[in-house]
Each structure stands twice: as C-alpha cells, then as structure tokens.
C-alpha cells in the first residue's frame, strides 16, 4: 500500500470542511412537517417528487460534461449556490407551488454534485501518490465527515424547530451552507484527466 504524504491530508482538509458545512441543512429533518404547514397533501407531495425527479436526470449528463471540461471545483460551488437558493426559497415559501420550485432547484444541486466529489478525491490521490490504492480510505473519510454532519443536522434541526419553528431552520442553515463555498474555493483542485465524471472530457481533449 502506498503511504499517503502529509500533503495529501492537508490538501483534502478544505474539501472535508466544505462537505461538512454543506451537510448542515437543518431543515431536512423537519421538512415534511413544514410542508404540511404550508398546505401540502399526499397528491401535491407526489407532484413535487415528480418535478424533482425530472430535473436530476435531465441535468445529470450536461453537468458531468461541464464539470469535466470546465472545473469540478467550480461545479461544486455552483451546486452549493443552488442549495442556498433552494433553502432560501423553501424557507420563504408559503404555498405549494413555491416550495415545488425550491425542490426543483434542489434537484439542480444534486445533479451538479452527483459523482463530482468522488472523482475529485480520486484525482487528488493520483496526483499526490501516483496510484489509487488509498481511494477507499479517503473517500470513506470524506463520507464519514458528511455522515457526521447529517447526524448533527438531524439532532440540531429537530431541536431548533421545537424551540422556534420549522421555517427558522431554513434560514439558520444558510450561513453554514454559504461558508462551504469559501472552503471549496480554498481547495486545490486536481488538474489531471484521470477519472472524468462523465466519459467526455478525455475524448474532448484528444480531439
């Protein structure tokens, strides 16, 4: 097994911080409660799910091509902006159509971020160690940070909603999510074409 240099650990710190902050969406555990408060019914919940389900697959391939040809780090920043917009619009929502729009913007976030994090970690490992032997270890550490953030979110979000209201959890989440952009911008993005999020980048470069 290749021993990861200390620079690898330091290089991945901003990415781990960004993922942790991004996971502090305190509204997630109380979302269904909030939805009932603004008038959702089983049929409108299904409508929202359908609208969300349309956005993600439609944008999945184009976002992958953009990530590979432009910048994965900038795509993660754009994904975070979409998450902020969705959270803000969701917190401001007072009716079903507005919240469905927020859910569709959340779909943009998931489409942009899907697969990007994994490929970035892989490419950093290749640049720093020359092989991918430690990929499972490091992607596991990143996912552990993400899981820890989700645990905090579940506990803190429910507590905050109980002390204030479900709507407040949306607005309190915004600063934490916004700070993840700073962390992403401090991350030293790999520049090699190793593990494209889509299969298009290497072919595009060869042309």
Explain what the structure shows:
With 207 residues, the protein is mainly alpha-helical. The chain has one domain: MFS general substrate transporter like domains (Growth Hormone, Chain: A). The protein is 78% helix and 0% strand. It is built from nine helices and no strands. The protein has helices at 6-22, 31-37, 42-69, 72-92, 96-113, 116-129, 135-163, 166-186, 200-206. Helix 3 (42-69) packs parallel to helix 9, helix 4 packs antiparallel against helix 5 and helix 7 packs antiparallel against helix 8. It is globular.
Would you identify the CATH H-level superfamily? MFS general substrate transporter like domains
| Shape summary | globular
Q: Count of DSSP helices? A: 9
Percent of residues in beta strands? under 5%
Q: How is the CATH topology named? A: Growth Hormone, Chain: A
Q: Determine the fraction of residues in helical runs and give it as a percent range.
A: over 70%
């Amino acid at each position: 097994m290749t021993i990861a240099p200390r620079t690898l650990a330091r290089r991945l710190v901003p990415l781990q911080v960004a993922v942790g902050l991004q996971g502090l969406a305190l509204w997630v555990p109380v979302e269904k409660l909030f939805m009932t408060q603004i008038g959702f019914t089983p049929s409108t919940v299904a409508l929202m799910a359908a609208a969300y389900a349309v956005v993600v697959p439609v944008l999945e391939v184009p976002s992958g091509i953009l990530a590979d040809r432009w910048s994965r780090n900038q795509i993660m920043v754009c994904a975070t902006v979409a998450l902020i917009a969705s959270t803000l619009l969701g917190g401001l929502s007072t009716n079903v159509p507005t919240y469905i729009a927020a859910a569709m913007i959340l779909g943009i976030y998931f489409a942009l971020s899907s697969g990007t994090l994994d490929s970035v970690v892989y490419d950093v490992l290749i640049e720093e160690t020359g092989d991918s032997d430690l990929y499972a270890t490091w992607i596991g550490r990143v996912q552990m940070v993400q899981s820890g953030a989700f645990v905090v979110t579940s506990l803190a979000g429910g507590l905050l909603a109980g002390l204030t209201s479900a709507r407040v959890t949306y607005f309190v989440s915004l600063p934490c999510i916004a700070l993840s952009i700073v962390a992403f911008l401090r991350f030293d993005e790999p520049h090699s074409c190793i593990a494209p999020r889509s299969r298009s980048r290497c072919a595009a470069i060869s042309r």
